[in-house]
């Protein structure tokens, strides 16, 4: 096991020895790294029953229904509904909240491009909000960005740690604006004992390969509001309410244009195993992260991101902030010199691609979501020409992005590899001190 908090890394080792250990490090995935015969058996169960469609088949085992019920119990939500992707979950949740043309949706500048794309596909316009040292939406800037067009706030729990949902909730409550939580990167996270995804009005998660638990692709919507749930179910199916395998739109208050975003039984069967793995994985990741932070805490230039609730942090990611972009560059240069094959697996947030607002070409270039310039050209969005998404729009976010590096902790990392990573990181810091 990893030594207890406060213990020191034993015995000095050479850089070459550290490199050799780190070269065996697993990739920085999470649930996918734990796949074994249990996921294979679950998938086979569906295949052998020849019933991959969730609502019926020769011998349907109702895996999606079971997974949704298990999610409701785990997250403590009244309702859970699965979709074919995280984007599908976003689209359904925005539909449930009534987001459409003429609306603005506030999104943090450190995000994932799908959050913006879903807003555009609903005919609304994304408005960028600053992040703070949690690397999540800054409640103070959120208040400044709200206006009469604001329909919804998307709070994204980035890189494994929850946003400050109490402060965000107070702002949202003051204006009567619903909050959509995207907890794709923070499945299992919590704030003061409340699971993320259940604190706002509605929550969504992606089940794609990079996420905490995964079946390769998929999405989840959770909420406590019966009306929201009913709208999500109709929108992700044929557009009608469904009872079992029957649909009836004759007197359906939730009748809509269905998007056909149904989950499949093979993925649902795999996800049932992944959900069972989640508590153990979180315990392991939190233990490792506590140990790593205890070892790095006394290094001169190391400052960690602010964690709203240490017990609710998933432990999946270490984020280190430097005093300036130049210091971050110096660290990365020294790391590249000592670990020329990238064995340390630290990355600068500045290289995070479409996780950064000014790298999202769909908004920067105002790419039409549909022919005719939709939604930018809609009369309801006549003020859209005033929006810019170029770098510099969010100076605080830009600075934090340029000063921060991160390391994704694989759940199957060994104790030897953990100590090698700590030794490698320490060696880079010592190299900087000696320069």
Describe this structure in words.
- This protein is of the alpha/beta class.
- It folds into two domains: 15-29 and 279-351 and 400-434, Aspartate Aminotransferase, domain 1, CATH 3.90.1150; 37-273 and 354-388, 3-Layer(aba) Sandwich (Aspartate Aminotransferase, domain 2).
- Helix content is 37%, strand content 13%.
- It is built from 13 helices and 15 strands.
- The chain has helices at residues 15-22, 37-48, 63-75, 86-96, 113-121, 139-145, 165-175, 226-236, 265-296, 325-338, 361-364, 395-403, 415-434, and strands spanning 79-83, 104-108, 125-129, 150-156, 179-182, 190-191, 194-195, 202-206, 219-223, 242-243, 246-247, 303-304, 317-321, 347-348, 404-408.
């Amino acid at each position: 096991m990893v030594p207890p908090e406060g213990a020191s890394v034993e015995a000095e080792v050479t850089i070459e020895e550290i490199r050799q250990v780190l070269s065996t490090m697993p990739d920085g995935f999470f649930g996918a790294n734990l796949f074994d015969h249990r996921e294979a058996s679950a998938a086979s169960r569906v295949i052998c029953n020849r019933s991959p469609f969730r609502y019926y088949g020769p011998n349907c085992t109702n895996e999606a229904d079971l997974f949704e019920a298990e999610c409701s119990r785990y997250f403590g939500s009244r309702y859970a509904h699965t979709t074919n992707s995280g984007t599908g979950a976003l689209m359904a949740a925005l539909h449930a909240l009534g987001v459409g043309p003429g609306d603005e949706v506030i999104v943090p500048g450190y995000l994932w491009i799908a959050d913006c794309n879903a807003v555009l596909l609903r005919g609304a316009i994304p408005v960028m909000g600053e992040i703070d040292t949690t690397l999540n939406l800054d409640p103070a800037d959120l208040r400044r960005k709200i206006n009469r067009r604001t329909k919804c706030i998307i709070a994204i729990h980035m890189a494994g740690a929850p946003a400050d949902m109490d402060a965000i909730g107070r702002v949202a409550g003051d204006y009567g604006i619903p909050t959509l939580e995207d907890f794709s990167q923070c499945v299992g996270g919590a704030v003061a004992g409340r699971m993320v995804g259940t604190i706002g009005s509605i929550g969504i998660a992606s089940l794609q390969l990079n996420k905490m638990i995964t079946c390769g692709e998929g999405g989840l919507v959770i909420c406590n509001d019966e009306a929201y749930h009913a709208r999500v179910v109709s929108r992700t199916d044929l557009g009608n309410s469904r009872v079992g395998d029957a649909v009836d739109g004759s007197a359906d208050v939730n009748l809509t244009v269905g998007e056909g975003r149904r989950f499949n039984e093979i993925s649902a069967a795999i996800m049932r195993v992944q959900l069972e793995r989640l508590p153990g994985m979180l315990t392991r990741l939190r233990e490792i992260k506590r140990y790593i932070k205890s070892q790095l805490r006394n290094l001169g230039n190391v400052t960690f991101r602010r964690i709203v609730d240490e017990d609710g942090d998933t432990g999946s990611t270490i984020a280190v902030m430097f005093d300036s972009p130049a210091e971050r560059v110096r660290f990365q240069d020294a790391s590249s010199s000592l670990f020329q094959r990238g064995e340390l697996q630290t990355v600068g947030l500045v290289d995070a691609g479409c996780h950064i607002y000014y790298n999202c070409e769909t908004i920067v270039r105002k790419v039409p979501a549909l022919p005719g310039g939709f939604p930018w050209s809609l009369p309801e969005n006549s003020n859209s020409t005033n929006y810019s998404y170029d770098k510099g729009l969010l100076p605080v976010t830009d600075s934090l992005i340029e000063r921060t590096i991160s390391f994704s902790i694989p759940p199957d990392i060994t104790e030897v590899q953990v100590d090698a990573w700590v030794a490698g990181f320490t060696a880079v810091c010592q190299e900087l001190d000696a320069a």
